[in-house]
Each structure stands twice: as C-alpha cells, then as structure tokens.
Amino acid sequence: MELIDLFILCWAIVFLRLWWKYWSVTGGGPKNLPPGPPGWPIVGNLFQVILQRRHFIYIVRDLRAKYGPIFTMQMGQRTLVIVTSPELIHEALVQRGPAFASRPADSPLRLVFSVGKCAINSAEYGPLWRTLRRNFVTELINPVRIKQCSWIRKWALENHMERLEKESVQNGFVEVMANCRLTICSILVCLCFGARISEERVKNIELILKEVMLMTTPKLPDFFPVLAPLFRRQMKEAKALRKKQMECLVPLIRSRRAFVKENQNPNSEMVSPVGAAYVDSLFEMKPPTRGPLGEQEFVTLCSEVISAGTDTSATTAEWALLHLILNQDIQEKLYSEIVGCVGTGVVKEEDVEKMPYLAAVVKETFRRHPPSHFLLSHAATEETKLAGYTIPSGVNVEFYTAWVTEDPDLWEDPGEFRPERFLEGDGVEVDITGTRGVKMVPFGAGRRICPAWSLGTLHVNLLLARMVHAFKWLPVPGSPTDPTETFAFTVVMKNPLRAVMVPRTTSSSCAH
Ligand code: HEM
Question: What global pTM score does this model have?
Fold first, then answer.
C-alpha cells in the first residue's frame, strides 16, 4: 500500500467515525432535545426497535428505566419525545395544557381515513378541533342527551344478556370480549346514526373499523414520509379499504338524511327522534377552515366515535371480569352490593351511580389495565421547553401513562388487583381526570382528555352490573384463565377470556 492510500484510508476512517458519531446521537446536542438511545445513521432507532420483535410499549418500559422521565427516540424521520413521569405529564397536559394540545402530522396513509385530519382525535389544536369537539360534547354526551338515549343502552343490554344465555347453553361457556364489543358497538352505531340495525350489520361495521385501525397503526411509511411514493401498494390497499368503509356506512347516512329531511323511514330502522343522532348535528355543520361537511367527513367522524368507544370499554369489561373470576371474594362482594341496591329487579342506569364498590372495581381495572399504555400522539403548538429540554413543534410528544399506575412509589403493591384501595387506601383521593395531579390517567388529562370518559365508564359499569347480577362467573373447567397481555389497538388478553356463567336466583336476567 502506498503512502497516499494509507493517508486516504486514515481520512476515510476518521470521516466515518465522525459521521457515525453525528448520526448515532439521539437527543442532546445543539438542539437540546432530551437524551436517548444511540441510533444508526439515517434510520435512527427504527431498526433497533423492529429487530427486537417486541411491542413498542415493552421497549419503552425498558428505556424508561435507563433514561428516566423524559427521553428521545429517533424513528426514521420522526422524532419522538417520550414523557413518563407523573410530574412532567401533569405539567405538560394540565399546567401548560394549550402548549402541548396539538397533534403531529399524519402520514399520507392516515390522511386517507381522516380526510385531511377532519376528526376530533387527529385535528390540530385550533378552530376546526374546537368546533368538532364542542359539537361532540353538546350533541352526544351532555347529561340531557345521555338520559334521552338511555333506552338504547337498555335495548342493547337486553340483547346482550339473551345472547350470553344462548351462547352458554350452546357451548357451556361464553366469549366475554366478543360479546361486550358487539353490544357496545350496537349502542354507538345507534347513537351515531339513530338506527337500530341487525347484529350481522353491526358485526360488519365492527370488522371494517378494526381493519381501518390495523391499517392506520404506525408502519414504515409513517417514519419515512419522504419515501411515501414508494409505498404505492399500501396506498392502494388503504384506498380500497376506505371505499369499503364508505360503502358500509354511507347507506345509513343517506337513510338518516332522508328521515331527517323528508320524514322517510322505509325499513323502519331509524328509531331515534330527529336531532337525537350524532350525525344529525353534522349535516348542517360548517366548521371554520373547512366549510360544509360531506359524506366523507360524516363517515370519518362517526367511525371515530365507534372506534374510540368500542375496544376501550370492552377491553375494560373483559379485564374486570377476569379479576372477578380469579377473586371470587371480590365477585361476591360486588354481587351483594348490586342485590342490596336492586333486589330481584333489573339494574338500571341510575342504580349504578349508587354502587361505590362497583365504581372501585372499575377504577381498579382502569389502573391495573389501562386500555392504552400511551395517549394518542401529542405535539407542541410551537417550540417550547419541558424539564429544561427543547421540544420543537414538529416532534411527536408521547405520554407513556401506564408507568404511572405501575410505580411502586405511587401505589402500594401496584401489581395486585385490590378495589378496596379506592374506598380506603392509596386510591381514595385519586382524580381520574388528572386535573389535581397525575396518579392514573386512563383517559388522558387536560385539553385533549377523552371527551366521553363518563360515557365509557357508564358502558363498563352497566355491563358488569348486569352480568354479575344475573350470573356467577367461573373459569371454564380444565382451561385456566390466562392473564397474558398482547397489543391490539388496546392492551387486551392474549387468549380472550372464556367463562362459565351460572344463573343467580335473585335476578331475572332480562327485562322481558
Ligand atoms: C373506557 C373507555 C375509554 C377510554 C379508556 C378512552 C381513552 C381515551 C384516551 C386515552 C384518549 C386520548 C387522550 C389524549 O390524547 O390525550 C381518548 C381520546 C378520545 N376519545 Fe376516548 N376513551 C374511552 C371511551 C370513549 C368513548 C365511548 C368515545 C366516544 C363515544 C370516545 C371518544 C374519544 C375521542 C373523540 C377522543 C379524541 C379527543 C381529542 O383529541 O380531543 N372515547 N380516549
């Protein structure tokens, strides 16, 4: 080797070393981002995450132990700032709420389903979001509307109990999650479109919306928007799925419009009075920066309600029932409370408000099994600071809220399922909305808190109260329950819960 070759080789090594050093650093540096695990050039930490073949929530759990309450991950072109401590979550979401109330840019794939971010969950913090959210709150979940629509829940729960009884007779056990999902989905479809439709059609809606959720979970194009033109196949599939979603929901919207405008109801499926369905409020809506909405937007806004409200509540009901099966004492205590309240009658909506132990069981389930371990991605409205670090406006700010409920400094024996802690213990003072402090925030906190948290809780309360009042719940003989978790939009049981139900003598399980 000649001297000049040796010289070039040395320079190449020095250059590569500097290049690697520059690219592998995550966080810190002149940008003053929070520190983070060293990444690879160009792709950052993306392939390290993919190669681990574990869900992101488990990787973050380990990184939190190493990097502490706030750290950065570089996922391709996307920078993620991950916030895990209760103090920082409270500071960002409540004390400085507006500063962190926006959402990051959507990938082209997600934009197909959100029709350019025209949904409450994806809209940036601004006039469009404010109008959509205010309309949702006044039209769907104000206390008068909740009361007016209580017949929908009564009807859906009667079907639920009948379906369970049939399934139990047929198979000797019931599938808890599938039944709870179907019931909640029927309620939300009726709240959105004012229509009472067959279970087969509800199942079809459920299936399509599940496909949409799977399609829109973060994938490679999300991390490399610059390469979007290369992902033509995915885009084609997304457009085909969107067409299917439109074909499934537009007939309901058209039939509702005809009912509202011309008083037509040919197949009698429209059951809510004019003005009582969520979609009615969207027909005449002209949100700022958007103008009058069309069928694309109606489909997106109604799908968001059904998707946001189904899995979250059904997952909670399934986890709660698992613990009631594993802890028969807790089940008996809950059963006694329900019987003490309603005797042999049917549990009504106003009854569940008078059941403190039920509320404690449901809160303990939200604590022990928060349906989502992260909130939806947040973004700063403009460059700001958190914990002394710079948070640029373009980055994803991810709140890892599950850690808060696992923290042994905040909870005594956090791994145990103990509803009593909410009656006399470390849960008594807890504010589930996070406003007074963050100890558990299953619905988020601040400006973007789940606007339907009370409705979601009502669905879980009613399902549990009706099911425990009518039946004693037991494991399937020879098939022990398995509490292993897996991730499917929410954190669900890997092997869905199957249970045996034995009728109680105190209850007429159905209202007929
Ligand atoms: C147990 C039930 C539920 C749980 C645990 C839950 C949880 C959450 C969480 C964690 C967020 C994200 C908050 C954030 O990004 O900071 C959220 C947002 C949202 N949820 Fe829920 N949710 C539930 C039920 C429902 C129901 C029944 C509906 C509709 C009827 C609903 C509609 C929404 C909407 C529209 C948003 C977006 C809010 C925004 O971006 O301003 N949720 N929910």
Answer: 0.92
Please give the Cα distance from 318 to 464 (Å, whole number): 9
Q: How far apart, in Å, do the first and last CA atoms of the chain sit?
A: 94
Instruction: For ligand 1, pick from 191, 213, 303, 450 the residue to mutate: most ligand atoms within 8 Å of CB.
Output: 450
Ligand 1 nearest atom to the CA of residue 122, by list position: 40
184 closest CA partner among 359, 308, 345, 348: 308
Q: Judge whether 190 is annotated as a binding position.
A: no
Compute, in angstroms, the gap from residue 363 CA to the centroid of ligand 1: 16
What residue ranges line ligand 1, CB within 6 angstroms? Answer: 120-121, 133, 304-305, 308-309, 312-313, 316, 371-372, 375-376, 442-444, 448-452, 455-456, 460
- For 80-134, how does the pLDDT look when each residue is reduced to its tens digit (9 = 90+)? 999 999 999 999 999 999 999 999 998 888 999 999 999 999 999 999 999 999 9
Per DSSP, what are the bridge partners of residue 500? Answer: 474
β-partners of residue 479 are 476
Instruction: Give the distance (Å) from ligand 1 centre to CA of residue 291.
Output: 25
d(CA 156, CA 108): 37
* Helix %, strand %, coil % of the chain (to 5): 55, 10, 35
Residue 391, SS3 per DSSP: strand
3-state secondary structure 474-485: EEECCECCCCCE
Q: Which residue, chain included where needed, has tokens 């406006």? A: 393
How many helices and strands (H and E) does the chain possess?
19, 12
How far is the centre of ligand 1, averaged over its atoms, from the C-alpha of 62 (Å)?
Answer: 26
Domain 77-503 falls in which CATH fold?
Cytochrome p450 (1.10.630)
Beta-carbon count within 10 A of 263 CB? 9
Nearest atom of ligand 1 to the alpha carbon of 313: 1
**Residue with tokens 């819960």, as numbered in its chain:** 497
Place 314 in a pLDDT band, splitting at 50, 70 and 90.
very high
How do residues 340-351 score in pLDDT, each as one tens digit?
Answer: 999 989 999 999
- The two three-digit tokens of residue 467, written as one number: 């099911």
Ligand 1 centre to CA of 99 (Å) is: 20
Dihedral sign from CA coordinates of 78, 372, 161, 186: negative
**DSSP assignment string, 113-125:** HHTTT-STTTS-T
Question: Judging by DSSP bridges, how do beta strands 485-488 and 471-475 pair with one another?
Answer: unpaired
Can you give the pLDDT at residue 171? Answer: 96
Contact 334, 423 (CB under 8 A): no
Distance 308 CA to ligand 1 centre (A): 6
For the chain, what is the radius of gyration of the CA atoms? Answer: 25
Q: How far apart are CA 105 and CA 293, in angstroms?
A: 22
